[in-house]
Structures are given as C-alpha cells and as structure tokens.
Amino acid sequence: xxxxxxALTLLSxxxxxxxxxxxxxxxxxxxxGTGSFALANGINDWHIRITSDKLGGINxxxxxxxxxxxxxxxxxxxxxxPYDEAWSWNTLIKVVRSGNQTDLYFDPLLAWPGDIYTxxxxxxxxxxxxWKVLSNGEGWLSGAKWxxxxxxxxxxxxxxTGDGIRDWEINIENPFLxxxxxxxxxxxxxxxxxxxxxxSGCFDAWSTYSxxxxxxxxxxxxxxxxxxxxxxxxxxxxxxxxxxxFIRAIKPDGNWALWKVxxxxxxxxxxxxxxxxxxxxxxxxxxxxxNGINDWHxxVESDNLSSPVRWIVRGAKTTxxxxxxxxxxxxxxxxxxxxxxxxxxxxxxxxxxxxxxGDIFYVSAVLADGTMLNWGITSTHxxxxxxxxxxxxxxxxxTDISEKxxxxxxxxWHIKVSHDKFNELQPYLWKISSNNKVWQTPEDxxxxxxxxxxxxxxxxxxxxxxxxxxEWAKPGKQFDVEALFTDGTLVQWTTVADGAEWIQTxxxxxxxxxxxxxxxxxxxSDGLPDWVIQISDNQSLDNLExxxxxxxxxxxxxxxxxxxxxxxVLPQGDSxxxxxAPVPSKSSKNNLLTIKAITESGKLKFWKVIQPEE
Length: 614
Prior knowledge:
- By secondary structure, the protein is mainly β.
- The chain has no helices and 43 strands.
- The protein has a 9-stranded mixed sheet with strand order 17-25-24-20-21-22-23-19-18, with no helix packed on it.
- It is globular.
C-alpha cells in the first residue's frame, strides 16, 4: 500500500502574498435582489472578493460579472454595477470597497462546481482589468424524487384554486429541510432547440413568492413539511417527459439549497400514431369550422382512456387544445383541436403548422378525475419510466483502467433500473447517453461512424444494474438510459449524477518562492519558483494511489510516469500541498488546472483551481 506521508515533512507556514486575487466566498448575506436598486430579497447572495493592487485608489466606472447559467439554461448570467437598462435579464451588483479589497454581492442563479466567472472592472473606454474565479457550486443537494400526479388538485395556472387537473408532486428528503422553509421555487427551462414550446418567456416557473422569480410571472406553488420530508405541489403544464426541473428552498435567514429532478410527465401511454394530412377538414386555426385546408390526423389509444374532458397536442412550435363544456383553455392563445372519442381510442384533428422533420408531437388527455395521460407520437413503441437509481461509484465493481501506460483500479458507476418488461424479455441493446458521450452494449463496431464506450449489465428479476467507467460529473449531470427489445419496444429512463466525485475548488497559494519541484523525472528543484496548490477534503487523504494535474496544455503526475512532469506532495493536516514546476501558461486563456486523484478503494476525486492574474 502506497502512503504519501512517508518521509515527508510538514509544511509549517504558507505565506499568501498574491496581489491579484479573485476569491469565491460562500453566501452568507442578502445585500441585493433582482432589480435596479440594492434591495434585499430574502436570498443570500453570491459573493466574490477581489484583492487588487492594480486598482490602487482608482474607483472603477463600472463592474461586470459573467458566468454560470440563467434559468433558461441558454443565456449566461450577467450582473452589472451600475445597473444597465440595455440588458433585460441583468441584475445589480452591490459593491463594497475597503482599501485594495472589493466585495461584490449579486443575486444567485445556477452554478455548478468548477464554473468559471469573469469579473471585470471598467476603468475607462479602452481600459479594464479582468479576474477569473471558480464557483464552488453551493447548494446542490440530493434527495429529490419525481412522484408524478398526486391525488390533490389545489392549484391552477394563476391561482391557488383547482382547475380539474391533479397537481404534480415532488418529494425531497434532506437534512436541510429539518428547519423552517420560507420560500420554494421550481423552474422548468426550455431547451434552445427542439419541440418544446416557449409558453412563458424562456421557462415555466412556480413559486410561493408573490413577485415571481427574477421579476417574471410564475404560477403558484404549495409545499408541505409535516411528513418529515418536503412535498412540493405544482400545477401540471403540458407533458414534460425527460425534462429537468430545478427546485430551490430558502430559509428565513436567507440560506438556500438546490435540487434537480427529472420530470416524467404524468402517465405515459403507448399506442400513438401519426397519419399526417388526410382528406378531412374539420377545423381551422382557432375555431371548429372547416377552412379548406386538410387537417393533420393523430390517433391515440389506451385502456386507461375514459371520457376525456380536455385534449392538448404540442409540437412544431404550436399548441392545440380542446376543452369540454364549462372549462377554460389552459392558454387562450392555443389553436383549436377537434377530437372524435372512440372509448379506448381517439382520433385528433389539428390545423397544420410548420412541421420540421423529426418533430415529436406530445398529446395529453385530461380525464374527469384530473388524471393526465400522455403520448409521444414516435416511430417506435416508447415507454418512459422513473424507476431508476443513481448509485454512484460501487466499490464492489472494480475494473482496471489504463491511461498513458499506467493502470489503476477504478470503482465503476452503478445505475439501477427496473421495469415489468424485464419479466417478459431481456433487451438486445442497451445505451447510456450523456452530452455527446455514449456507452453501449453490444458496442458499436463501426468506429468510423460513431465511437461508443463499453458498459456491462447484470439482471435480477425485474431490475437491471448497469456499470460504466466513471469520469468528472457535475451535480445534476443528466444520463439517459435506453433499452431496446426485440418486439420494437423502447424503454427510457433518465437519472442525474450526484457529483460526489467533486470535492471543492483548490486554492492557489504563494509559498514565498518555494522551489521543491522541477521538470526532470526525479522531480528535484530546478531554481524556479514552483506553482503551489492546496487541496483539501473532509475525508482522509492518506490513501491516494494517483494524482494527476492537467491544464495549460501540460500534465503532471504523482507518482511520476512517462512524459508527465512530477508532483511534489506535502501533507498539512487534512490538506495536501502540491508543488509543480511552472510552464508557460499564457497559452491558456483561463489558466485553469484540473486535479484528479484515485484512492486505494478505486474512488475518484476532482478539484479545480485557477492561477491568479499577475
């Protein structure tokens, strides 16, 4: 067993004398909200502290911060001081200066560990100073589960009154919720490309806060903490199978936490069919009268379909809707829909819109008891299930991974899925997708078309355990699982990573010109001041097998191997000091380094750190 503490002396003092420092401070104050004035809004702000000798006594004309994501998941967050009316989604920065230190407070949006924020001090028309800082991704917690439709109908789109559609329910169990909660927000972003219809700005949102999220309209929300866990209720919108919803809970003292859950709509049905244009003309764009244009025809069927009181079809950037006598449309701007009910099936006719090849048409039926059934009109039988568990790295499933001539044992990621279909058949094809990476079994042998990564599957009754090699994953990173059966059925699940591999940001420190590392393989000093990084963990760091640092186009290893530069490792309590020989870093715009460690048990750990501006 390798021990990194053997024959190493403790580093007694670390002198931090860097003059240009950007530091991410955990939120603990509520100084500013979302408007043009520095008014608190009950949510503790993000906080960046700039220590700069370059500014000296200059008072910048303005401050800018860019980074993270706005709720839409499309736009980058932007904050200004003074407030800029030209950018409709920006918000104010509260600036507090003392000597060479400037504290910037700004209203939080979405940030993951390792997100880069750029801070700019505007000194004049052509003069500015920039710093970069890493977010620690505060607030991301586990324990949220999608429950689908509840037995309650207490909310509508605009009011806390039932609308005939039973509410969606999200359950959250986490120690953060053991004390009082004053506000809860839920946001459903829309993807920038695809078949989702923008219905309310760039997202749908629900909140207990009467002024809405960031000044935008939101639908009402209710929550219940009496059961020992938080039950969040929101009014259903259109079918949202596979979409990601973000939940934020805020305490009376302004502390907050975030969760991400995958919404699987309500009940998803098979039996949808697309016929396109036929010879029937029942309806026009906004009323139930023929207009000389043949309608699109869709057919859905289900044993659960019984006397629907409302139909909704969504696709091709359009929403069509019909509602029974005495019921209002969910949106008065929706186009008309004509339905012929056949009991367990229905034929739906809608005015054609601009169709794009490959569009999916989502069909929703609301029954008399408030149940919402959903279909996705696709070319295969498609079932979506939420019986999936993210189990993270499994120390009972160890595999060898060789990287650049070095072999380490890694505990694989474990995803568990369940479905009654497994009692009939076993899939002939499995696929896990995340961003542009695909794990598949059997593997795709046509490497010229697509490269897939291996995975393994173990069955136990109606459950299957899927194993893949782990990598860097932010909290909430989405993994889509598909199983294809020989009868043409496609079953889909979606889960999110807990980001347990992330530890926290490393700290770039100045060790007063220490020279413990060099570029040679023996790692001895080379007469040049080292780059010095401190990493820490809330667990013991004495069982590490490997440390790798990458960035700026270079690589360092401990133990030293191959062409990588060596790392000198020094313990300091529950932290480790890493000395590496410097390289020309100006080729990297962000000067961002990633630190990866592998423990004896096969667990991965990651840190990130940015070299301060000189």
